[in-house]
Amino acid sequence: MRYFFILSLLLAQNAFAQCKDYIISVRGDTLNCTDFKGQKQGRWVISIPEIRGERGYEEQGVFVNGKREGTWRRFSLEGDLLAVENYRWGQKNGQSVYYSQMGDPIRQEAWRAVNPDNPYDTVAVVDPNNPDKVLRYEVVKVEGHAMKHGIWKYFDPSTGAIAKTEEWQFDKPAPKNVDDLAPL
Q1: Per residue in 107-142, pLDDT tens?
Q2: Sign of the four-CA dihedral 174, 178, 180, 181
């Protein structure tokens, strides 16, 4: 029994020793943890004050090994939701939506993060006449950043209707018709 008690004390000490710097939130949560390697870990709240006429804001999300991961939310200093962004490998990935001060969507973006450990990707080349048919797969070199990939929507602030849409494929505007397709 004595050995079990000593073992549990050592495990508890390791659990508390993961953060070199951190803060405790009002609800008792550990926030803004920096590990002993100097990397940000876990849940973070980042406050940006008003400066030179620019409005301040707060961001909330999770860091994994110093890189943003998962869903991040941006709020005005008054508490209004300004943006919801998704991250992978520290880069934007998936849908990002930006809102006006009134809570109406302004812009919806689609991103694709690139794994920095693997600079190559396999892309399906589809038949332009039959989008369900894959002609072949190509291995392409990609840069180590997030790329515009998918449908981007811009909203009219007065009506909330979609004012403009754009389609992107790997950081380039998507071809509008078959004649715009470039050979690989």
Answers
A1: 999 998 888 888 787 878 888 888 889 899 988 877
A2: positive
Q: Per 3-state DSSP, what percentage of the chain is helix, strand, and coil (rounded to 5)?
A: 10, 50, 40
- Angstrom distance (rounded) from CA 168 to CA 151: 6
| Spatial separation of the C-alpha atoms in residues 69 and 22, rounded to whole Å | 19
Q: What is the pLDDT of residues 145-170, one digit of tens each?
A: 888 888 999 999 888 899 999 998 87
Joined together, the tokens standing for residue 129 give 């006449």
Question: CB-based contacts of 162: which residues, under 8 Å, 6+ apart?
Answer: 153, 154, 155, 156
**Is the distance from CB of 86 to CB of 72 less than 8 angstroms?**
yes
